């Protein structure tokens, strides 16, 4: 089992916040172009931008703590896993006219978010052990 230190968890949380903010900005600034290239509905890109902004804000707030609160990190992890599940459904269950690039994009960002969630979960377990000691 991976044992992520508190400082490493904070770095992962900052990465989650920065990547989420970048994705949200792209979804807002280039939603029309992304919709055409990826085959995702315009409104889906805009709504996902709002959702990702909220997750990025939560991640940044958690990362700003010297010892991120376990409950907050686990809430973020749950949201990230929900994002991954929704992404998989978007590709294979939503019946959207995704382009090949759209399928690759959705699955790659889902894999990245899955990796972040796994690291955050590991870090939350370490923080919990520290608080119980």
What summary fits the major beta sheet? Answer: none
DSSP strand count: 0
Helix count, DSSP H or I runs of 4 or more residues = 5
Average per-residue pLDDT, rounded, comes to 95
- Low-pLDDT stretches are none
Q: C-alpha Rg, in Å? A: 16 Å
Number of separate structural domains: 1
Q: What would you call the structural class?
A: mainly alpha
State the end-to-end distance: 19 Å
Strand fraction equals under 5%
H/E topology pattern? HHHHH
Determine the fraction of residues in helical runs and give it as a percent range. Answer: over 70%
Main features:
single chain; 133 residues; mainly alpha; 5 helices; elongated
Structure description:
With 133 residues, this protein is mainly α. The chain is built from 5 helices and no strands. The chain has helices spanning 6-29, 31-38, 42-63, 70-92, 100-132.
What would a concise description of this structure say?
The protein has 133 residues and is mainly α. The protein has 5 helices and no strands. It has one domain (6-132).
């Amino acid at each position: 089992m991976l044992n992520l230190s508190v400082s490493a968890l904070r770095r992962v949380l900052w990465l989650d916040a920065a990547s989420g903010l970048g994705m949200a900005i792209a979804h807002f600034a280039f939603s029309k172009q992304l919709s055409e290239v990826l085959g995702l509905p315009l409104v889906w890109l805009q709504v996902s931008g709002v959702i990702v902004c909220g997750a990025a804000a939560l991640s940044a707030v958690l990362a700003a703590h010297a010892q991120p609160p376990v409950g907050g990190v686990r809430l973020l992890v749950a949201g990230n896993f929900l994002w991954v599940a929704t992404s998989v459904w978007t590709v294979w269950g939503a019946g959207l006219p995704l382009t090949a690039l759209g399928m690759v994009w959705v699955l790659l960002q889902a894999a990245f978010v899955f990796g972040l969630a796994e690291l955050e979960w590991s870090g939350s377990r370490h923080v919990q052990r520290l608080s119980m000691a």
